[in-house]
Amino acid sequence: MDRMSESSRAFATAQVQAGYDPAIAERTAVPSIHQSNAFEFRSLSEARDLFALRRDGNIYSRAANPTVLVLERRVAELEGGIGAAGVSSGQAAVAVALLALAQQGEHIVAARQLYGGTIDLLQDTFADWGIDVTFVDQDDSAAWAAAVRPTTRALFAESISNPIAQVLDLAAVSAVAKSAGVPLVIDNTVATPYLQRAKDFGADIVVHSATKFLGGHGTSLGGVVVDLGTFDFTAEPERWPQLTQPYKRVPGATLVERYGASGSPYIALVKTKYVHDLGPSLSAFNAAQLLQGIETLDLRVERHTANALAVARFLESHPAVARVHHPGLESSPWHENAKRYLPRGTSSVFSFDLHPSGSADEDFALVEALIARLRVVKLVANIGDARSLIAHPSSMTHSHMSPAQLAEAHIGSTTIRLSIGIEAIDDIIGDLAAALAPIEAGQIAAAGAQAADGQLAATSAR
Ligand SMILES: *Cc1c(COP(=O)(O)O)cnc(C)c1O
Predict the structure, then answer these.
(1) pTM metric for this prediction
(2) How close is the Cα of 416 to the center of ligand 1, in Å?
(3) Per residue in 143-168, pLDDT tens?
């Protein structure tokens, strides 16, 4: 809270100016798009030093690009970190952030309330590579602690999950990470550093899908990994040989020796090994788009947040709506966490349930007809856009999940996800009201209403 009041202005300034030194290049006021694959060396000696990581500079845009560097510095500053890596997508950010921590034969504990793409990555691809992942209910601190093994190398969760918008008890999970001696990695995509600086509550590494609110306009994929500088990899060096043992790519030094005093050994590993070898680089053009988006982050997120809470209150009072999953509402099980962790307001990504009919096919038809009546809110599989977006998780983003996984995630056949945009609030609510009106006018069958009561009781029991 005091960080926020103290630094409200600092945040707004940092989001516009951080990371850019106009003395480079042509003194352009706005970061230039350095659309160049590679950079000309002044001499072979300089090239040799750069390749040996003895000095910092530009070699080739897969590993580092000056426009991407501005983005990295800006997001690092907004999150309070010591270094960052910009990559091609949020998916890439999650992948390289965790690969730099957990090797074959090692283990990760993750919340089961994760973005669908992250669940695929952890339970399919990481399993193929021999990295074991245990999924736990993120609200169950005992489950986090019980899942830790000697081979555990990271804990991973989202600060606000989607579509149900659970707000993580970050301090509780951070305490488990600290006693396990491993970093807590937080996907802060939905909260953004404006609503929550995860570092203040004990996170060690933050990842973003910059595709969403950071960019904010639905034009450019990108991801960022930020080292918050809070985890000491030298406390138990044998656990982290990738940072504390000699590293072939820095002749004669370990990454901790080379970058420990200034910079981030962890980010150096992410860039010089995982981004370099696997290739998920961020383009200069996308970095410039994301930078421009970040310049208005606080203004947009404030509007997103206010609009979304107004929509949630409207939906909560609507007879066709069985339940609204929005942590800003007093009825939410995560309302107390929201007050503690998101004092500036909660995110604009949340869900609501219509009264289910008892038949998945009928529910699909009901939701399809509702979406077909919308004019302002668009059917799009994305979040964090300036536009208001709607999605049906059980037939779209979460369609590959098993019935048990869907139930655990509180996603039913009538669960509808919204990402509320920055349009005029009356237009958004008017659009939803018109689309819901025919349902209100009598499409809720008596049997359906009874089934809905059953589900409601089950949901509120947890
Ligand atoms: C979208 C998203 C991702 C993946 O990001 P992409 O940029 O689409 O690859 C990861 N985590 C969360 C929470 C997301 O919403």
Answers:
(1) 0.92
(2) 18
(3) 999 999 999 999 999 999 989 999 99
